[in-house]
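pasting dihydrouracil dehydrogenase (NAD(+)) for the record, 391 residues
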Amino acid sequence: MELEFAGVKFKNPFVVASSPLTSKIELLKMAEDHGAAAVSTKLTFIKQPFYGKLRMYNSPKEASIICYDRRLDLEEGLELVRQAKEQTELKIFVNITSDSGDLESWQRLAREHEEAGADLIEANLICPNVGLATKSIKGADAVSSTEHGGAVTGQDPVLVKQVVSALKAVVKIPVVAKLTPNVTDIAVIARACQEAGADGVCLAGGQSSLPPVDIYHEGRPCYELLNGASHGSLGGPATKLISFSQVAQVAMKTDLPIIGGGGLGNVEDAIMMMMWGATLVTYCTSIMWYGWEVVRRTVAGIEKYMQDMGYSDYRQIIGKSLQYLRPSSELEAVPGYPRIAPDKCNGCGRCALPGHCQAITIIDHKAVVQAEKCLGCGICKQLCTRKAISF
Ligand SMILES: Cc1cc2nc3c(=O)[nH]c(=O)nc-3n(C[C@H](O)[C@H](O)[C@H](O)COP(=O)(O)O)c2cc1C
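structre below
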């Protein structure tokens, strides 16, 4: 089932996020073979400020952190786009940033990629590995004149507006801004994008983060094969619920279509992200951890879900959950308490563990509830491995 984003048609909502997954033509072909509608190419500079190598922290089921990576220089980025347009039907977002802070270099990157065949520009205002890491460690004054790319620009609504306006002035293809979440109010930045004429925004993880440290070896940070540590960009499951919130805020406060990502790993995640307001969804860590089958399963699963649920258009699910959002003061608590199914309860006592709860006791190997003491947190139901608790 097709859908439209920023005036461009996509055969489904799946975008492979800018990363090592999108740095070579062979990998873009894998993306296409497994059903992706689009890719965002690896971050491209005119000339990258330093040549990193792929180093990251990985804790499957929890999070990835990327603090160091090889990006593309302009010629490499252009060649990748040309190859992709010749050899695939993918829609190509080009993920670009300028570290020099001047708008002309942003414009040059966008113009030349448009000429090479890019379908959309994705202005990278998210990457923390250029100036934001310096700012986080040494302070704003230490950010040098060649460290303006990515998140350090993305934190300032004035600069964001200037960049988006400058890009809109020189290209005809849509301009999407990929925004850092490391701001006080994401909607302020998204509105600056809208005022500057952006055609959409991408909100996809990237919270500034540090890895765990080895407490038995001098507190050494748990990055593999790397000396030193830097604040990096968070991906993987840990970011998903934060990403839902960011997407919903922007969906409610702007008219911009949204690419939503950060922590997505399966079909249900994609649909939930769309229900919180995303038109397209973007995946990275889950494909890096579990391979290209993630794409095939997710694309097939989304299409099956749409059919099974009787939806004929993605617009029927995009933003569906926003209707439930209201200030805490306007929420209404529904009265209730846990009920125990005695045939399922084996008296293990897990449900009686929560530190704040005095409502459940184990009597004769069965959980017994004092309804009037129940605070209504719902934790006992989640702790019960035998599904013996309902509300
Ligand atoms: C190894 C790695 C490299 C990345 N490189 C880029 C990049 O070049 N440009 C960019 O905008 N985002 C980059 N990202 C961020 C991802 O595109 C994505 O927004 C983020 O990881 C959150 O999504 P996920 O939870 O699905 O990984 C990178 C992420 C990883 C893990």
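The chain has a mean pLDDT of 96.
The radius of gyration is 23 Å.
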